[in-house]
Design brief:
Layout lengths: L1 H23 L13 E7 L13 E9 L6 E3 L2 H9 L8 E8 L6 H5 L2 H18 L3 E6 L5 H18 L4 E7 L7 H4 L5 E5 L25 H10 L7 E6 L1 E4 L8 E2 H5 L9 E5 L4 E5 L5 E4 L3 H14 L3 E5 L9 H11 L2
Parallel strand pairs: 1-2, 1-14, 2-4, 4-5, 5-6, 6-7, 7-8, 8-14
Antiparallel strand pairs: 2-3, 9-10, 9-13, 11-12, 12-13
Helix pairs in contact: 4-5, 9-10
Pfam family, one: Glyco_hydro_18
GO molecular function, one term: endochitinase activity
Keywords: Carbohydrate metabolism, Chitin degradation, Glycosidase, Hydrolase, Polysaccharide degradation, Signal
Length: 344
């Protein structure tokens, strides 16, 4: 009799779990999209398709690092920057922001931020460049300060750049999904917002790298867990711009470890013995091989719509994506995010 009771309880719990999973990815009715949400496209210094000018509030052009003498800014591919600036003719409200750093661009940051004279010279050069190209601000993406001293110097850089640019220009920074790159409370004295790199959270297959909630296929973190971490470290919801990935993380066999969205959707899955599935708890799609093993996790329009709902539900500052060049030819992901956050 006791075994029967335990069996009934287990079945009931399983049903509740399934019900919760079904509800977790449900679209919310909510209010119509409002224009105050940030919709930011990161654009890379190499050539590639740019987002339509009316489908973003800002373009972060990741093309700058400290120069060789650590006292100024080196911008790569200035002609591409000029083409981005030309989009302002189509959308005068568009903000063009110079982003500095990126993975693999660590050289020079510690040296520059560690000396007052170099840091102040760098901040002055930020001002010169913003004025010269009529930019709307700067974004920092040092990945990542290695210790507390470097983190403290990074905050000093935010302060110096804010003093140089004033309050009418954007100063923002990207931060890893754990929120441990710098002191968030102190940083928000100088930053307008923080761009959360809420991707690569499982690194690559067989785990999701962009899970909204924790399922058995989620990696080291999820968006919900990342947001909670940033909240405990001093950010408010309105300080956060949620990161969205326009690429997948594969198993380095059937799909590359980094696979552009365009290269995922152009595959003939059935012919290759693969199948697309949907994780109703993590709220993301994934592809499995003939054995049912996750071989690439990624985003699609359905999962991005749910993440945009999450942005609105929590009152986040908006969404940003890495990056527009990885979208398909129809710009399905770009159009989805613009439609949800900007109503365009």
């Amino acid at each position: 009799m006791m075994n029967v009771k335990i069996k009934k309880i287990s079945i009931g719990f399983a049903a509740l779990v399934l019900m919760g999973a079904a509800v977790s990815c449900k679209r919310t009715s909510g209010k119509a999209a409002e224009p105050e949400y940030e919709c930011i496209a990161y654009v890379w210094q190499e050539e590639g398709k740019l987002p339509p000018a009316n489908m973003v509030t800002a373009i972060n052009y990741l093309a700058a690092i400290p120069n060789r003498t650590h006292d100024g800014v080196q911008i790569n591919n200035i002609p591409r920057l000029q083409r981005i600036l030309n989009l302002k003719k189509e959308n005068p409200a568009l903000k063009v922001i110079l982003s500095m750093g990126g993975a693999g661009a660590e050289s020079g940051w510690a040296e520059m931020t560690g000396r007052d004279s170099l840091r102040l010279a760098f901040a002055a050069d930020c001002k010169r460049i913003v004025d010269k190209y009529e930019l709307d601000g700067v974004d920092f993406d040092w990945e990542f300060p290695a210790n507390e001293e470097e983190q403290a110097n990074y905050i000093r850089l935010f302060s110096d750049v804010r003093n140089a640019l004033g309050r009418d220009k954007v100063v923002s920074a990207a931060a890893g999904f754990f929120g441990n790159g710098f002191d968030m409370r102190e940083a928000m004295k100088y930053l307008d917002y923080v761009n959360l790199m809420t991707y690569d959270m499982g690194w690559q297959a067989p785990y999701h790298h962009t899970a909204l909630r924790r399922s058995e296929l989620a990696g080291v973190s999820t968006i919900e867990e990342s947001i909670d971490s940033f909240l405990t470290k001093g950010l408010d919801y309105k300080d956060m711009v949620l990161g969205l990935a326009f690429y997948g993380r594969g198993n380095d066999k059937d799909f590359k470890g980094w696979t552009d969205y365009r290269d995922i959707v152009n595959r003939n899955l059935a012919a290759e013995g693969m199948e697309e599935r949907w994780d109703s708890i993590a709220c993301v799609p994934y592809i499995v091989d003939s054995l049912g093993t996750l071989i690439v996790g990624y985003e699609n329009p359905k999962s991005l719509k749910i993440k945009c709902d999450y942005i609105k539900e929590k009152g986040l500052r908006g969404g940003m994506y890495w990056r527009s060049e990885l979208d398909d030819d129809s710009m399905s992901l770009t159009r989805t995010v613009a439609g949800e956050l900007l109503g365009r």
